[in-house]
Amino acid sequence: MAAKRIFQGLPWWVKWIAAPLLIIAVFSSPITSVVGLVAWLLFRALLLVAIIGGLIYAVRKFTSSSSSSSLSRSSRDDW
């Protein structure tokens, strides 16, 4: 590969310290943007799951308590 030939003969610290630090310095803004976007999307997805879960819990709790006298025990457990 071309990268192997470029780094051939250079000290180890250039390959493993200097080059990665330069890459991070040059691409730090896009990396930060991507990490921020992923964190934002994950937070939104978890928030959506929590809201839907709360809605389902509330609907089941209120519908089962309002109709508990008309439903048998086995039909309520099917939910």
From TrEMBL:
The chain crosses the membrane at residues 12-31, 37-59. It holds the Pfam family DUF5326. InterPro entries: Uncharacterised_SCO3924. It comes from the Bacteria. The keyword Membrane applies. Keywords: Membrane, Transmembrane, Transmembrane helix. The keyword Membrane applies. This is DUF5326 family protein. It comes from Streptomyces zagrosensis.
